[in-house]
């Protein structure tokens, strides 16, 4: 733990938008400790939502948009992007910029979130201050020009409030769903309580969980675990993170071969996200799925 923070964050300037959002959602999530806001329907909605919306980040933002490890029809790609936006992890373009910079400078000083500064910095501290490189127009032009060719992403970058509207639209949708289920199942007296539980658990708690699961890839997977490959940075394959992220925790495999859609390089390194990409391929909703490098070499040799 001997690396200085990126020079682009100095002198420090608080990122009030990120701080406000992170603090506000965590405070709202505390409502989950009040029995009135609990329901088993809301709880299991949260569990399912962690996976469904989380795949907006894992499959959408990461493997599809950042690394282009497979192709989909535009409407499928945009659906994953909207799911990612609902996780409040910034716009697709800015997420891609940060992650591509991370790969270029992984665990060196310009890396936006290396744990070689310290654990807290890599997990969430880097979000609290403005990074003048990752949020510059020149970085967007350099690292995300391919996304800006799509009018969908260009529109959202020109009108950033669009992300807010998409994220806030979750609240009436989840409330209405819970209210309707409560009304049909138990009558009007239960409808309001179930609707509110769907907001607290299905939205607030789910967003918090997805945040920390995503951030654990930046922190834990660069600190603890084993390496299949000797790369020029500190990425690790971490069982716990792989379980929580349905595959992203095989992070050393990923840094060895970022372009592949599959992070499973050994038979027991289960990558559920890859299986779901292959399912999309079977359904005709994905194509040009890039296999791991060792399989590509074997196919070429054959």
What does this structure look like?
The chain has 302 residues and is mostly helical. It is 59% helix and 0% strand. It has one domain (7-301). α2 (40-66) crosses α3.
Could you give the topology of this structure?
Blueprint: H1 16-29, H2 40-66, H3 74-85, H4 92-104, H5 119-123, H6 137-143, H7 145-148, H8 151-158, H9 161-168, H10 170-186, H11 188-219, H12 239-244, H13 251-256, H14 272-282, H15 293-301
Helix pairs in contact: 1-11, 2-3, 2-4, 2-11, 4-6, 10-11
Unreliably modeled segments: none
Radius of gyration, in angstroms, nearest whole number: 20 Å
The arrangement of helices and strands along the chain is: HHHHHHHHHHHHHHH
Structural class: mainly alpha
Portion in helices = 55-70%
Count of individual beta strands: 0
Distance between the termini: 45 Å
Overall 3D form: globular
Observed structural traits:
mainly alpha
Short recap of the structure:
The chain is an all-alpha fold.
